[in-house]
Design goal:
By secondary structure, this protein is of the alpha+beta class. It is about 40% helix and about 10% strand. The chain contains 15 helices and eight strands.
Length: about 350
């Protein structure tokens, strides 16, 4: 009886899965279409919101008091992007987060807006048919491996094509990487990334603001490294480094990311430009002067002479049955069959 009671109690502890109804996409908002045509955002529109305001509605965002302080305030998300499941409240469920893959970029105001795939599908014909629009549709995938850094410059695939001289601003790479949960980045972004995370390099490692100081002085939660005397910079969360550690764990679905650049920063380890994370693969280039000094040029010339000699004697090498490009095969298969049949009769 005791064993049966324990088994029944264990069965009661099993929780049934909760099923959520997915949110439906109705249509493309008129304000987003206007943003594509003009490159400017409509004031007080419900079609979009700031990306870090959206993060504030998540459980982790509320826990760490995420806001727009310390950001460029130019990265937005469409309202449809934030809707993944039907919920009775406006709070976002942490486990139902989209990955940003489509971004609208305005060359007029330098504002970026993340849209969902359905909105991108509606915008592609508009961007392809019209000419001279001030907006571009970019593709993006958060670099979670070193080889995925090709997506970091936001020029992998764009509609329409960007001018060759265009370079994505550093603030966009950093803020989009923070929002998307990327693990790898270029070392050129390291200094600005430290400012966003509210840390500074010390002798032993990266130092974050002390929680005791934050409790004593509530205004000190926004203070990080002072670039100039009397000027204080802001950060987007109360403890940005701690927030990023939890946010990356959520984005990566519990996968280990400690051996990545962002994982090192979350552990308080400083990074240098000569770290293996930032080493680029070497390309083998042949120096003509160096090759000539080794005598390889002479050897290659002799090989060319030998090849020319054999090229002139192709007929002698292969014999009369050799069929070249300019020759026609006149071999009669019927004669061969007659000869073989006669030999069989004999």
């Amino acid at each position: 009886m005791c064993q049966v009671a324990i088994e029944v109690e264990n069965v009661r502890e099993v929780q049934k899965p909760v099923h959520f109804e997915p949110a439906r996409f109705h249509r493309l908002h008129a304000d987003i279409s206007s943003f594509v045509r003009t490159g400017r955002l409509a004031a007080d529109s419900s079609a979009f919101e700031h990306a870090f305001n959206f993060l504030r509605r998540t459980y982790i965002g509320r826990k760490h008091h995420v806001g727009t302080e310390g950001t460029a305030q130019k990265l937005y998300v469409s309202t449809e992007f934030t809707r993944t499941i039907k919920s009775p409240t406006d709070r976002s469920f942490d486990n139902f987060q989209r990955h940003p893959n489509w971004i609208l970029w305005s060359s007029v105001t330098e504002i970026a807006m993340i849209v969902n795939p359905e909105e991108a599908e509606c915008l592609i014909p508009l961007l392809q048919s019209a000419q001279g629009l001030p907006t571009y549709l970019l593709t993006y995938c958060a670099p979670v491996t070193r080889k995925m850094l090709q997506f970091n410059d936001l020029k992998f695939y764009t509609i329409p094509a960007f001018p060759k001289s265009w370079e994505a601003p550093t603030w966009l790479k950093v803020e989009l990487g923070l929002f998307a949960g990327r693990l790898y980045f270029d070392f050129s972004e390291y200094e600005l990334l430290c400012q966003y995370l509210g840390v500074q390099e010390a002798f032993a490692g990266l130092e974050e603001e002390n929680e005791d100081d934050l409790d004593l002085n509530p205004l000190a939660i926004d203070v990080i490294v002072e670039e100039t005397p009397g000027k204080e910079l802001k950060v987007f969360a109360r403890k940005p480094l701690t927030f990023m550690h939890e946010w990356l764990a959520l984005r990566r679905k519990g996968q280990d990311f400690s051996s990545t650049p962002m994982g090192h920063m979350c552990q308080g380890k400083p990074l240098k430009s000569d770290h293996p994370f930032f080493m680029k693969p070497l390309t083998r280039e042949i120096d003509t002067a160096q090759v000539r000094g080794l005598g390889a040029v002479k050897g290659s010339q002799e090989d060319d002479d030998i090849d020319d000699e054999f090229a002139d004697d192709d007929d002698d090498v292969y014999g009369e049955n050799h069929v070249g490009i300019d020759k026609v095969d006149t071999f009669d298969d019927a004669e061969l069959e007659e000869e073989s049949s006669e030999s069989d009769e004999d």
